[in-house]
Design goal:
The complex is a heterodimer of chains A (233) and B (412). By secondary structure, chain A is an alpha/beta fold. Chain A has seven helices and ten strands. Chain A is globular. Chain B is an alpha+beta fold. A six-stranded mixed β-barrel of chain B has the order 2-3-8-5-7-6. The chains are: A alpha/beta (233), B alpha+beta (412). Chains A and B meet through helix 2 and helix 3 of A and helix 1, helix 12, helix 13 and helix 15 of B.
C-alpha cells in the first residue's frame, strides 16, 4: 500500500475550540491517504474525528498545521479557490442527504457538474443519469428529491458526490440514518468506487462493522491518532 | 426548460416553487412603483401647468431699462479726502430704450431665439363714469404678441384682428370688464399720467385665470401707447424674447447682456418665488414617493431574508459542492431582481392606468383637464430606481447567505 500515490496528506493538524473554554480538539494529527483507499475514521464521541473531517474538507480553515491534496498545499488558499478545489476534487456524503427539495434527483446530481462547466448540458445530464444507474436509481431520476425514501435519497446524494469524479470522497456517518439493507448497498457502492476507479474514501463512522470492512481504520482519542490500523477489541 | 447558467437556473427554480412569496414581494414593488410614477407625473404636471401660467404673461427673456438710484457725486481719493454726498434718489430718467430696432435685429440673428418683439408699457387709468381702475396698457403689435403668448387661446370675447386693424381699439382683461360693467364694443375712457385721455372701443376681453392680471392688463396698438406718453414712434420700453429652450434662458440672457447696457432678465429671475415653490413641492413629492418605494423594498428584503433562513441547508451543500460566495450572492440577488422586475413592470402598468384616469378628469376653466404630465423619461426613471432599490434589498440577505458557514450547518 505504501508505494501507492498519496492523495491527501496532513502535517501536524491542530485545532482549538474556544467556546465555552479554550480546548484542544485536534493535536498534531498527521496521516496520509492513498489513491483507491477506503479509509475510516473512528473514535468515541468528542474524539475529534468529525472535526478532523471538516478540516480535510477545506470548508473549515481555522486550524494549525498543513493540508495537502494531490501534493498541492491547501492550507492558506483563498475561499474561492477552495470552492473550486472542492468542486473538482472532493465529493461529500453526510448523514443527512442535503438534497435540494425543489429539484429532481437528476438535477440534484447535475448541480456540481453544471458548476464545473467541464461538459455540455447534454453530457452532464447523461453522466448524471449514468451515476444514478450505478446506484440503481434510474427509475427515480425525474422525481422530485423530496418524494424519495431515506435510503434512496442517500444514494442520490452519493451520486451527487461522485458526479465530478473527485479524487476524494469525504463521508460523515454516511450510514448513520440507514437500515441494514441500505447500509449494505452504500457500502458496496463505496467498495466498488475505490476498486474500480481508484478514488479514495475517507469516512467518519461509529458503525464498527462498516469500519471493519474498510481497508484501513484510523482511531482517534482526545484529538490524537491512537492507531493507524485495524484493531477492534 | 434548459437554462445554461446554473445560478440563474437555481434562482428561477426558487422563484417558481415559491410563487406566493414571489407574488407578495412583487406586489409591494408594484404599489411602490405605481405611486412613485404617479406622484412624479403629478409633480411634473403641476410644474408644467405653473410654467404655462407664467408664460401666459412672461416672455423667456425681458429687456428693459431699470430705474437707477443717484450715486454720490464724488468718491474719496487721495486729493479729495472728503466725499461729496447727495441723498440717494430715484432718477427720473425716461424708460426709453434707445435704438431698439438694432437690438431686435441682433436678437433675431441669434439661433437660440424664436420670437422677439418690442412693447410700450404705459401706466393708465380705466374710467367708466366716475369709476376708475388703475392698470397697465401694453402697446404691442398684437399678432406678434399672440405668437408668443397665445393670447387668442384665452380670449373669451372679440377678435385679435380687430385690434391689429383699429388704432382706437383695446382688448381688456375680464376683471376690468366686470368691475367697470363693460361689454364687447362698449367704449372705455383711458387716461395716462401724462394727461392724455382717449376714448377706446373694447374689441376683445381675455381671461388668464390670474385675477390680478385680469383686473389691470390691457392690449392697445403700439402707436396708441406712444401717444399716451407723448413720445415718438421710436419709443419702446421693453423688448421681449422667447428662446428655444426655456431652461437655458439664463445663459442666453447672459449672452444678450453683452450686446446691450439695459437689464436683461430671464424668466427664472422674474418668477423666483414660483420656482422655489416648485422646488419645494418637487422635493416633497420625491421624498414621499421614494419612502413608499423603500417600504416596498423592505418587503423583498424580508421575504429573501426568510428564504435564506429556510434554505441554510441548501446554501451549505451548494457551498460544499463548490459554489463560491459570489455564486450564492448571484443566486439571491437574481431572485430579488426577478421579483423586482415583475413588480416594476406591473407597477408601471398600474401607474399608467392611474395617470390616464386622472388625466381624463375635467377640472373646469381655467385649468381644463387635470394637469398631469408623463413621458418616457419618467417611466425609465421609475423602472431604474425600482430595480436599484430591489437590488439593494436583495443584496443584504444575499450577502448574509454567502457568509453561511457550511461546517456549522453540517455539524448540527
Amino acid at each position: 500500500m505504501e508505494n501507492r500515490k498519496i492523495v491527501l496528506q496532513t502535517e501536524g493538524i491542530g485545532k482549538y475550540f474556544h467556546d465555552p473554554v479554550t480546548f484542544k480538539v485536534l493535536d498534531d494529527v498527521s496521516f496520509k491517504a492513498y489513491s483507491g483507499e477506503f479509509l475510516t475514521l473512528v473514535g468515541k464521541s468528542g474524539s475529534g474525528k468529525s472535526t478532523l473531517l471538516y478540516c480535510l474538507s477545506t470548508m473549515d480553515t481555522n486550524y494549525e498545521g498543513n493540508l495537502f491534496i494531490n501534493e498541492e498545499k491547501i492550507t492558506g488558499q483563498k475561499a474561492d479557490d477552495l470552492a473550486m478545489i472542492r468542486n473538482k476534487s472532493i465529493g461529500f456524503v453526510f448523514q443527512f442527504h442535503y438534497l435540494l427539495p425543489e429539484f429532481s434527483c437528476l438535477k440534484n446530481v447535475m448541480l456540481p457538474a453544471l458548476k464545473r462547466k467541464q461538459y455540455s448540458m447534454e453530457e452532464v445530464e447523461h453522466r448524471a443519469f449514468e451515476k444514478l444507474k450505478l446506484l440503481g436509481l434510474e427509475d427515480q431520476a425525474l422525481k422530485p428529491a423530496s418524494k424519495l425514501s431515506g435510503g434512496q435519497q442517500q444514494r442520490v446524494s452519493i451520486a451527487r458526490a461522485i458526479i465530478n469524479d473527485p479524487d476524494i470522497i469525504l463521508c460523515d456517518e454516511p450510514t448513520g440514518n440507514l437500515d441494514s439493507k441500505n447500509t449494505e448497498l452504500v457500502f458496496d457502492t463505496f467498495y466498488r468506487i475505490t476498486r474500480d476507479s481508484g478514488q479514495t474514501i475517507i469516512a467518519v463512522t461509529h458503525d464498527l462493522d462498516f469500519a471493519k470492512a474498510s481497508d484501513r481504520t484510523i482511531e482517534l482519542a482526545d484529538g490524537k491518532i491512537v492507531s493507524h490500523h485495524k484493531s477492534f477489541n | 426548460m434548459k437554462i445554461k447558467n446554473v445560478n440563474l437556473d437555481i434562482a428561477l427554480t426558487h422563484i417558481i416553487t415559491r410563487k406566493r412569496q414571489t407574488i407578495v414581494a412583487a406586489l409591494g414593488v408594484t404599489i411602490g412603483i405605481a405611486i412613485y410614477l404617479f406622484m412624479n407625473s403629478l409633480s411634473s404636471g403641476f410644474t408644467m401647468y405653473s410654467r404655462n401660467e407664467i408664460f401666459k404673461n412672461n416672455a423667456h427673456i425681458k429687456i428693459y431699462k431699470e430705474d437707477k438710484t443717484s450715486t454720490p457725486l464724488s468718491y474719496t481719493t487721495a486729493n479729495e479726502p472728503l466725499p461729496i454726498l447727495v441723498n440717494p434718489q430715484l432718477l427720473s430718467e425716461s424708460k426709453k430704450i434707445i435704438n431698439p430696432n438694432r437690438l431686435i435685429e441682433q436678437l433675431k440673428e441669434e439661433s437660440s431665439i424664436t420670437h422677439v418683439f418690442a412693447q410700450v408699457n404705459v401706466d393708465v387709468f380705466y374710467n367708466n363714469g366716475k369709476t376708475q381702475l388703475k392698470g397697465t396698457a401694453n402697446g404691442v403689435h398684437i399678432l406678434e404678441a399672440d405668437s408668443m403668448f397665445d393670447i387668442a387661446s384665452y380670449m373669451i370675447a372679440g377678435d385679435l384682428n380687430d385690434l391689429a386693424e383699429n388704432k382706437n381699439a383695446i382688448i381688456i382683461g375680464k376683471g376690468i370688464a366686470e368691475n367697470l360693467n363693460l361689454r364687447l364694443n362698449d367704449n372705455i375712457t383711458v387716461s395716462s399720467s401724462f394727461g392724455v385721455v382717449k376714448l377706446l372701443k373694447i374689441k376683445g376681453i381675455f381671461s388668464t385665470g390670474n385675477s390680478f392680471t385680469d383686473k389691470a392688463k390691457s392690449y392697445i396698438q403700439q402707436s396708441t401707447a406712444q401717444q399716451f406718453v407723448k413720445e415718438d414712434i421710436a419709443y419702446v420700453t421693453t423688448i421681449l424674447a422667447n428662446t428655444k429652450n426655456q431652461e437655458a434662458s439664463p445663459q442666453i440672457a447672459e449672452k444678450i447682456q453683452a450686446l446691450t447696457p439695459y437689464t436683461v432678465e430671464p424668466w427664472q429671475v422674474t418668477n423666483a418665488d414660483v420656482l422655489s415653490g416648485d422646488l419645494v413641492r418637487g422635493t416633497m413629492m420625491r421624498a414621499i414617493s421614494l419612502s413608499i418605494l423603500i417600504v416596498a423594498a423592505f418587503g423583498i428584503y424580508n421575504i429573501l431574508n426568510m428564504t435564506v433562513m429556510q434554505k441554510l441547508n441548501d446554501i451549505s451543500i451548494l457551498k460544499a459542492t463548490g459554489f463560491s460566495g459570489r455564486d450564492v450572492i448571484t443566486i439571491f440577488v437574481t431572485e430579488a431582481l426577478i421579483m423586482g422586475a415583475i413588480g416594476c413592470l406591473i407597477g408601471i402598468g398600474l401607474g399608467t392606468l392611474l395617470i390616464l384616469a386622472l388625466a381624463n378628469v375635467y377640472m373646469g376653466p381655467p385649468v381644463g383637464y387635470f394637469p398631469i404630465y408623463f413621458d418616457a423619461s419618467i417611466f425609465m426613471k421609475s423602472f431604474i430606481i425600482g430595480m436599484l432599490v430591489t437590488f439593494f434589498a436583495g443584496f443584504i440577505p444575499a450577502l448574509k447567505a454567502s457568509r453561511v458557514d457550511p461546517v456549522e450547518i453540517f455539524r448540527k
